[in-house]
Design a protein that fits this description.
Alpha-Beta Plaits; five-stranded antiparallel β-sheet; four-stranded antiparallel β-sheet
């Protein structure tokens, strides 16, 4: 604020434009002008000396007050418009609140999934077009929650099993297309800290007797030494019922002892592009992957065995999550997400 009235009148101009005083806000200008006007009104000498400016100051105060009123009206109008538009949006996007996680899981809307595939010669675009045509043909009979297009299949989510059957019948009219529900995954059981004295045949015999299985139903994948505990560990596949029983219990009985177990899931990773969910070649040795090659060491556009910097750890880069590690690293974020998706379709 100015120290005296002389400084005010030096800065004051005859044009009553509120934007001329850059030093003060609109409210401060009005207070300044009102103080000046009061001083002029009370002091006859000042009024006589600055009589030409007296009317100009009064008009300036009125115009500034009018501008303030107009701005207030505009602000109130905008607030009313925001309320009228935001309220219905907030009501439509409102989410349910639950006291704990278990309540949220119980009240979660169930989804029924269908996987649609086409012949190997077809492209991704062909599968998309055919799937959309099939969905449009039965759109009055089903309610689609979500559609996800993947490299070799299209995933459709619906509300009921009956709707899935309607879509399946429509899709299978085309002999080159198949529609199936995803099967439950049975994990491999990892038995940890097995005594070194126990042999593989003895473990299989004990498990088959304790859990009422035939020996042929106990498929041992690996039986390895665990250097961390100076014991052994075994990867074994069992039937669904016995797998659920053992995983839920957290241990397996072998003889008179109980050994800790862990569920392990097989995550398929391509050796060419290093993405998850498919292989580079099929059982007959034919190349299946249609993506560009991506190095598992530096994420370059070449095969891993062709990489020139395999021994240089400073050039490590994951082609999936772009972090500083190899594409096969167990701590990769993309790998963990892919494993979590597999666990959601697991039987236990």
């Amino acid at each position: 604020m100015p120290n005296n009235m002389n400084e005010v009148f030096k800065n004051l101009k005859t044009d009553a434009n509120p934007n001329e005083f850059d030093k003060f806000k609109l409210d401060n200008k009005i207070e300044l002008y009102e103080l000046m006007f009061a001083d002029l009104k009370s002091n006859n000498k000042v009024k006589a000396a600055y009589n030409p400016m007296y009317d100009n100051i009064l008009n300036t105060i009125k115009k500034l007050q009018k501008n303030l009123k107009e701005k207030d009206l505009k602000i109130t109008e905008l607030e009313q418009m925001n309320r009228s538009t935001l309220q219905p949006m907030q009501q439509s996007t409102s989410r349910r609140t639950y006291n704990n996680y278990s309540d949220a899981v119980k009240n979660k809307e169930s989804k029924f999934t269908m996987i649609i595939r086409k012949s190997e010669n077809s492209t991704i675009n062909d599968l998309k077009e055919e799937t959309i045509k099939k969905l449009n043909s039965v759109k009055n009979q089903i309610e689609v929650l979500n559609v996800k297009h993947r490299e070799h299949a299209t995933i459709v989510e619906m509300k009921s099993d009956e709707q899935l059957q309607i879509l399946k019948n429509e899709v299978e009219k085309d002999q080159q297309m198949t529609a199936n529900q995803p099967t439950e995954r049975i994990p491999t059981i990892l038995i940890k800290r097995i005594d070194n004295d126990l042999k593989e045949e003895q473990i299989v015999n004990e498990i088959s007797e304790n859990y009422k299985l035939r020996k042929e139903e106990c498929v041992v994948k690996k039986y390895l030494n665990d250097p961390n505990y100076n014991t052994n560990r075994m990867f074994i596949n069992l039937k669904k019922e016995q797998t659920i029983q053992i995983i839920q219990a957290g241990f397996v009985k072998i003889g008179y002892q109980c050994y800790p177990v862990e569920a392990r899931f097989n995550l398929v990773q391509c050796f060419c592009c290093h993405r998850f969910g498919h292989r580079h070649k099929d059982k007959d040795g034919n190349i299946v992957c249609r993506n560009k090659a991506s190095c598992g060491h530096c994420a370059g556009e070449h095969m891993t065995h062709q990489c020139k910097s395999l021994n240089d750890k400073s050039k490590l880069k994951c082609s999936n999550c772009k972090d500083r590690h190899g594409a096969k690293d167990g701590k990769c974020k993309s790998r963990q997400l892919a494993l979590n998706k597999i666990k959601q379709t697991s039987c236990c």
